[in-house]
Amino acid sequence: MGGMLNPFTPLTAHIHHFYFRIDLDIDGFQSDVCEEFNHNSLNDPGGDEWILLNSQSKRIGKSDAARKWRIRDLVSTNEAGQPRAYDIEIPQLAGRDNYSTGDVWVTIYRGDSIQQSADVGADCTDSALETVYTVGPLDTANGSDIVLWVVMRAHHVPRHQGEEQYYLPYHYGEFSIVPSNFAKLTSQTRG
C-alpha cells in the first residue's frame, strides 16, 4: 500500500484490510479438499492434526495453535504416496474487527465473470463473504474446486509530521503459500 494520507484526518489511526482470492488447482480443479491445521502439544508427536473441512465457512486464525490451512489433492501424490498440497500461513498485523470478522473463507469456484467478487467489500465489510460465498457443503469424498479468500490486516498509525508528511512510504504485508510433496524424491545418478 502507498499513497497520501487523508488531508482531512491526518491523525486518525486506522486498519487496512486486504483481501486475496486464491484458487490453487492441483492436477485439475475438481479433486481438491481444504484442511485446517492445529498444533496441540509439543509433548505428543501425534498431537498435531489436520481437520478435513466439510462445509464452506469462515475460519479464524489461532496463533497459540499455529493454525494454518491447506488445499490438498485427493488424487495427485508424490512417489511416496503423500498427497500434493499447498499450505497457507497467515500472520496478521492487526486483529479482527467489525469490518473484517474472519481470517480465511473456504468457498468454491463460482465462475470467471468480470463481476465475480465485485460485492466483496462493497459495504466496507466482509459480510458478502459470509452470506453469499461461504454457503453450502464441500464434497470431501470426491473433492471440490476450492477457492480461499484470505485477508491481511495492518494497523496504521499515521506519522503526518514525519515520514508520511507528503507521501506514505510503501508498506508490504504478506502471507505464505508453501508447496508440500511436489519435490522429486528419487536421486539421479551421475556418470
Describe this protein's structure.
With 191 residues, the chain is mainly beta. It has a domain of 132 residues. The protein is 4% helix and 32% strand. The protein contains 1 helix and 9 strands; from the N terminus they run E-E-E-E-E-E-E-H-E-E. The strands form 2 sheets. A 5-stranded antiparallel β-sheet has the order 3-2-5-6-9, with no helix packed on it. A 4-stranded antiparallel β-sheet has the order 1-8-7-4, with helices on one face. The longest helix is centred in the C-terminal third of the chain and has 7 residues. It is globular, with a radius of gyration of 20 Å.
- Strand percentage: 25-35%
Helix content range: under 10%
Kindly report the average pLDDT value: 84
Tell me the number of strands.
9
- Report the major sheet: 5 strands, antiparallel
The topology string of helices and strands comes to EEEEEEEHEE
What would you call the structural class? mainly beta
Uncertain stretches: none
Output the number of helix runs.
1
Record the strand order, biggest sheet. 3-2-5-6-9
End-to-end distance: 52 Å
Rg, please?
Answer: 20 Å
Which overall shape is indicated by the principal axes computed on the Cα atoms? Answer: globular
Secondary-structure map with pairings?
Blueprint: E1 14-22, E2 32-38, E3 49-52, E4 57-59, E5 68-77, E6 83-89, E7 104-108, H1 127-133, E8 146-156, E9 176-180
Antiparallel strand pairs: 1-8, 2-3, 2-5, 4-7, 5-6, 6-9, 7-8
